[in-house]
Amino acid sequence: MKILVLGGTTFFGRRLVHLLLGEGHDVTIATRGQTPDDFGDAVTRIKVDRTNQDAMREAFGNCYYDVVYDQICFNPQDAKIALGAFGNRVKRYVITSSMAVYNSKDTEITEDDFMPEQYNYDLDAQKYAYAEGKRQAEAYFFRNAAFPVVSVRVAMVVSGTDDYTGRFDYYVRHVAEHKSIGVLESEHPITYVTAWDAAEFLHFIGTKSDFVGPINAANNGYLSIQELCYEIGECLNMTPLFHVGQHEEQTLSPYAMFPYTWKILNARALSLGFEFSPIQKSISLMVQDSVSKWQRSLKDEFDALQARNMSPDAAATFARLIQDLRDQGAGKGLNIGDKAPNFTLEDATGKPVTLYEELAKGPVIIVFYRGEWCPYCNLQLKAYERIMHEIKAAGAQLIAISPQTPDHSLSMKEKHELSFFVLSDVNNKTAENYNLKYKLPDFQQAIQKRSGIELHQYNGDQTFELPVTATYIIDNNGTVIAGASEINHRTRMEPSEALKKVRSLH
């Protein structure tokens, strides 16, 4: 089959692509080209912004696919763009939706509890909440598509290996380290699905079934957060600790994001011949994977990325870049004991954030990164997100700064579900005040352009200036107590070290 996957470079989308390749399908992945993958030459890659109607039509206006998997459709505007791009040249279209389309209820939830054909959509909205965006995306597809559509309503996805949100890892680490877990006052059972089972089911429903319509993807069994933690505790021979948390105080754990009961029934999938296993059977392996992962350092992740992508020519070019930065005198940065210059920068939504106002609330970790196009920056920010609950528990917060425009900062924040400030340093003024600004050499500009990285589009200027990557821990008085800058962007402070520093301030 000729198959297109929109997205597919992270989490269960990556697993789906490997399953499709394993069966010999002709697979194309379409992404913005910012996340590295491990598919090698086995896939065709198309770089496209799926939120740009003209770009989508240019990319797919003459293409035919047996199956399209849409992993990144979040609202009816995305859906409309897809229908305009593909016309009637798709044999089967599979949307990854979410159990969030359902309203909570105490009894089991079936697909008939949300009927997208009867739901209204608003193409003129400026912004959509996640659940509402998914509802309206389904509604647009089922009411307007010229081809058969399946919406796979995925339960709460859990994984011990490639969950970039760090949610499952949070529970494993808290149980292992005997730290109290914030829960709601009353228990609410919810439904989970492992990343592997989600990928297996998407593979099945797209290539081995002719089913059309909405369908739930969920493992058997329902667990409250407390029950999940007791399952994890059995694997670790530990007893979990709990406290009642509050959303407004940010003392709740990740899966306590909603005070609802969601018991998703998977009978429709079973009737088609796909049997989900009980979630309890997968917890032990996920715990083992999680423990292995959070014992892995950021340096280990960087080394693995470099091993996959570093050719001899690339190594020589990188060495040339580092020498050029040394010749520029780039990367002096701040020293321990220096006063951190104050700044006011816009976050991803355009809201101004001022450093010294945030320092009045507690210490701040500042991370200067290059942009969402940099795979090392992506790994770094995801690593911080995995420990953000611990950073907040230490009374600290994180501010990530790049020269990207607010639109690209928003893309970064949404793509990785980042819970910390992601700020735009237009024209690198703050980076300059921190002695971090440098100009990308001409030869590197040419290499980036050949690679499809249009830096002027990300940063909104023609300067080709970037910050040297740097991390600083700032205490309440505005003093740098730890951190450093590094012209080698593959060498950065470990998030665990930053966490250790902010904890030492108590």
From TrEMBL:
Keywords of this entry: Antioxidant, Disulfide bond, Oxidoreductase, Peroxidase, Redox-active center
Secreted as UniProt keyword: no
GO biological process, alphabetically ordered: cell redox homeostasis; cellular response to oxidative stress
A single GO cellular-component term on record: cytoplasm
InterPro entries recorded: AhpC/TSA (IPR000866), Epimerase_deHydtase (IPR001509), NAD(P)-bd_dom_sf (IPR036291), Peroxiredoxin_BCP/PrxQ (IPR050924), Thioredoxin-like_sf (IPR036249), Thioredoxin_domain (IPR013766)
PROSITE patterns: THIOREDOXIN_2
Chain segments annotated as coiled-coil in the UniProt record: none
Pfam families: AhpC-TSA (PF00578), Epimerase (PF01370)
Residue stretches making up the Thioredoxin domain: 334-506
Listed EC numbers: 1.11.1.24
Alphabetical list of Gene3D superfamilies matching this protein: Glutaredoxin (3.40.30.10), NAD(P)-binding Rossmann-like Domain (3.40.50.720)
One GO molecular-function entry: thioredoxin peroxidase activity
Catalytic activity: a hydroperoxide + [thioredoxin]-dithiol = an alcohol + [thioredoxin]-disulfide + H2O
Functional description taken from the UniProt entry: Thiol-specific peroxidase that catalyzes the reduction of hydrogen peroxide and organic hydroperoxides to water and alcohols, respectively. Plays a role in cell protection against oxidative stress by detoxifying peroxides and as sensor of hydrogen peroxide-mediated signaling events.
Family classification: Belongs to the peroxiredoxin family. BCP/PrxQ subfamily.
Protein name stated in the entry: thioredoxin-dependent peroxiredoxin
Native source species: Paenibacillus cremeus
